[in-house]
Amino acid sequence: MVNSLSSSYKRILRRAFYAILPLNNRKQLAVWTEQRSWMLSRHILPLVILQDWAEKDSDAFHRFLWSRHLGYAKFYEEINTFGTEKITRTRKMLFGELKKCLLASGRLGEVKSVFEVGCSGGYMLRYVETDLFPKATVLEGIDIDDYALQTGRAYLRAHASKIRLIRADMADLDHVMNGSKYDVILCLGVLMYLREKTAAGVVKSMLNHCSGLVAIADLAHPVLDNATLEHSQVRRLDGAFIHNIDAMVGDAGGTIVYRRWNETKKFDGQRVYFVFCKPKGKSQG
In total, how many domains does the chain have? Predict the structure, then answer.
């Protein structure tokens, strides 16, 4: 009873806070709190301060956080860095399955170009460059997190990397790619920050600019196979979206080459949902 009253009281206080302080002022407050190194919860506060915005316009909310390196954008930087030993188990699992698919199609040694959608500082692209496709001559990625991009560029320059990082919104993918096609396109843990229609548009753009395989890792539904979802669902924790990537690929005219959804087993504390696909009419051999 006490806990119930406490939760109700907190909800009332939050609603009053949202009503009293306009959204633009709260955006400024979110940025200010993140910059205060002495605040123990400074990475969490922006999520709380802007929670009502997340519920009303999740796309804009997530773009705001990533473009200003706030909240979980900061968390991502802290748990990711350069180095083969720092690549998580789920990512190594994905890359292992990707190599198997390319090997089966006879294209493993033909990968010369790789593009990553939502590349952050270029951690995955660097792993691709050093461990996965060392013969690739074109390695490019886009992200809207300017802080992560600048940090990544500095590291990559110091290590004579070929990787090119571009600041752009993935909703503008067609414009950024400008008619180019890539042997492999990666989109790892990114579509979850876009609503269903926007995410479907990104999937279509990736297929349109792919000459080989598109590898997607996305948020897995905790109970249902994502392929059974009629529409995307919202994760209450942070407003992220749980998509049916299988359906998006089909609607875009693509073909699924490999997929994996784990019902019970978790890796790195989360369930796995991988979808590898190719453009319509693209042969495997």
Answer: 2
